[in-house]
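Re: your question from the hallway

Yes, I did run it. Sequences:
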Amino acid sequence: MSVFAESQTQETFVVNLGPQHPATHGVLRVKLTMDGEYIDRAEPILGYIHRMHEKNAEVGTWAQFMPNTGRMDYLHALAYNFGYSIAVERAAGIEVPERAEYIRVITCELNRISSHLLWFGAFVLDLGGFTPLLYAFDDREQLLDLLETVTGSRLTYCYYRFGGLYNDIDENFVDGSRAFIKRLRSRMPMYHNLVTKNIILMKRLIDIGPISAEMCRKYGATGPVLRGSGINFDVRKNEPYSVYPELDFDVPVYSECDCMARYMVRMDEIDQSMRIIEQALDKLPDGPIKPEKVPKLIKPPKGDYYAAVEAARGTFSIRLVSDGTNKPYRLKLRSPTFSNLSLYEEASKGMLLADALALMGSLDLVIPEIDR
Amino acid sequence: MSGYFKELISGTYSLAVGLGITIKYFTQPVVTMQYPMEHVKMTPRYRGHIELVRDEETGASKCIVCGMCQKSCPSGCITVAGKKPEGSKKKVLTTYRLDFTKCSLCGLCVESCKPGALDFSKDYNLASPRKEDYIFDLLKRLEEKS
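Structure:
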């Protein structure tokens, strides 16, 4: 904390950041109480795009909620599809064929890379560098084309089904994924030379925006924010689901607690995702993509069910309550960025406004997911 | 003091490396598509709005008016109606209206269709300022196509 922020003068003023500010990535409004250039209090104000997803689930059948899951975190939609599928499969006791599990992991990780690439571009854009966004979008475009050939859509995927998938992948997709990984591997050193080692970026990120492990625990922060604070927690390792235990990958952890640590966690996660995809493509078994018998109308037995997945921004979990009918009785969604944003008020106290924007960018906010 | 100069040199070097990358990519071919002049070809699995499939034998729609698509739609954007012509046992489709303003392109209707009467179109240039332009009469579209 600077000398200026400590010796607070009596004159503070209020600035509205957003809801249309480009750095807030959507309709997030932050009410800033400023002491000159320093932030005295930053209060995020939510609710501008609340769409009642949880209530929506209660009026439709189990299958009819599936398209909604892709519309919460539109950047990593497949992880949300994944989480909901797992939750309902656990509830209804549906077995998923192995091929379907592998394809789910491959597509989910490809989607994670596309999410991180967009974050990478947008984050550097927030800091004032425009060009890296164009390079990142070039790679992301290849990924979206690849996912479009198999899922049929480019952003709000609705690809998984209870017990399996919407449709099977073909040779073109397998070859395309391998070619993409080869391409991205050759591009990663370029990203590091252009951005990571850039002196301006280093000055703007190193030792800026400290989020301690203690603060993460207090607010329930997960994902790269938590791993950038030195805590090794990844749902894929800690509460394994699908075929992740059969795949060999590391969880990148950095203990510097600053914006640079969170940046590095995400960049390393791209590498790890590429490793996962390569292994999954090698191990991809033949077989059906849907179980032989899936009931047309799913009616899970009465009870309480829970499933968690690792999305690009942290732990996404679902709690389902079924009353034995064809509609969910209650569906509670726990989205990672809501918790990650909660620590913003405490973490940004006494920071320069420009640094606070770097901190906000490093949290990787997706507003539709905060306002479900 | 030596740290200051070290940082000055390494910092300037890092900027030069970045500029080098920019110059390298400047000389390479353009990766973007000149959109209004060129058009993207949609992949076979692209999910546009739905449309009716023609039965090659009869020339009419394959739809049997079971109403499963209408039932399965999460947003209620499909309206199907049919009637039994005299002396026939099967229903014949008379109206198939899609309110595309509400559609979320999930594909549950196509999956629920037993006779395979629904398919995704490849249309994506659908911009319009009027709401009425998105209320599609799919039966009329099918007739116009023939």
